[in-house]
């Protein structure tokens, strides 16, 4: 087995004893070689073999499904991503994979789109009822079906967010911050940010710096929210005089202001 020696090989076989009942030349070696062609990074390759050794005996189905997915435009790093994150889908009945692709196309994704794999990964985690329930939750905040689907198309992983987190985020951004709906339609990823670690603390700093006129040009809250941690600290905390910096840090790391 490429990549396994000594104890690692023993551990791999103990986890996947059924591979010993399959032909080395006809099944196991071709399976390993097929995975190697898809997963080029050595660490990822070893990780996939460790986690998904049970795929190896399923060579024919694996290859048939890989060929089908490649025809849909899911190849290279995207196929590797699917193999790493949802290996069971790779050896599912082809009708199951066709269903996932069909569902993604039905909600607006194109075959050969770079986002198709992300849609399939999300739809594989959600039943039709759960997907529709989350879409209705978004609708309840004044978004149309088309607008909700636009949000899904931009950030498919949004629909893996819990309904409670979606509801809390919607209420905060629309009713507290008073963002226009168009911002959430175009940047739905902000609904996935941690309320406790990012959204609320940065809102406190934003309000405090605005009330004290610390910035010559007042930034938008979305600009502040989307900065990396390093850039945020540099631009909106550490550059100010010592007493203001301390107050901003308290607002950011403590609970100086009420949200």
Automatic annotation (TrEMBL):
Q: Which is an annotated GO molecular function term of this record? A: nucleic acid binding
Keywords attached to this Swiss-Prot or TrEMBL record, sorted alphabetically, are: Transcription, Transcription regulation, Transcription termination, Transit peptide
Which top-rank group of organisms is this from? Answer: Eukaryota
Q: Does the keyword Transit peptide apply?
A: yes
Q: Name one Pfam family in it.
A: mTERF
Gene Ontology biological process terms, A to Z: DNA-templated transcription termination
- Family in the record: Belongs to the mTERF family.
What protein name is recorded for this chain?
Answer: Transcription termination factor MTERF5, chloroplastic-like isoform X1
Organism in which the protein naturally occurs: Vigna radiata var. radiata (Mung bean)
């Amino acid at each position: 087995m490429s990549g396994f020696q000594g104890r690692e090989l023993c551990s791999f076989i103990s986890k996947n004893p059924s591979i010993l009942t399959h032909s080395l030349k006809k099944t196991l070696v071709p399976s390993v070689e097929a995975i190697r062609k898809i997963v080029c990074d050595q660490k990822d390759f070893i990780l996939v073999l460790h986690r998904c050794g049970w795929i190896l005996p399923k060579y024919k189905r694996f290859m048939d499904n890989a060929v089908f997915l490649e025809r849909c435009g899911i190849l290279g790093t995207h196929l590797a991503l699917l193999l790493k994150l949802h290996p069971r889908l790779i050896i599912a009945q082809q009708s199951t994979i066709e269903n996932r692709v069909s569902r993604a196309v039905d909600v607006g994704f194109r075959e050969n789109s770079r986002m198709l794999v992300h849609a399939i990964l999300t739809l594989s985690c959600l039943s039709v009822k759960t997907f529709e329930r989350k879409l209705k939750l978004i609708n309840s905040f004044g978004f149309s079906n088309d607008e909700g689907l636009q949000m899904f198309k931009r950030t498919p992983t949004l629909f893996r967010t819990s309904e409670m987190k979606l509801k809390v985020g919607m209420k905060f951004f629309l009713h507290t911050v008073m963002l226009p709906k168009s911002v959430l339609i175009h940047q739905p990823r902000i609904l996935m940010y941690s309320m406790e670690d990012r959204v609320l603390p940065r809102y406190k700093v934003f309000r405090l710096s605005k009330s004290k006129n610390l910035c010559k040009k007042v930034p938008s809250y979305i600009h502040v929210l989307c900065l990396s941690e390093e850039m945020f600290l540099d631009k909106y905390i550490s550059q100010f005089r010592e007493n203001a910096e301390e107050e901003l840090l308290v607002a950011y790391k403590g609970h100086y202001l009420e949200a």
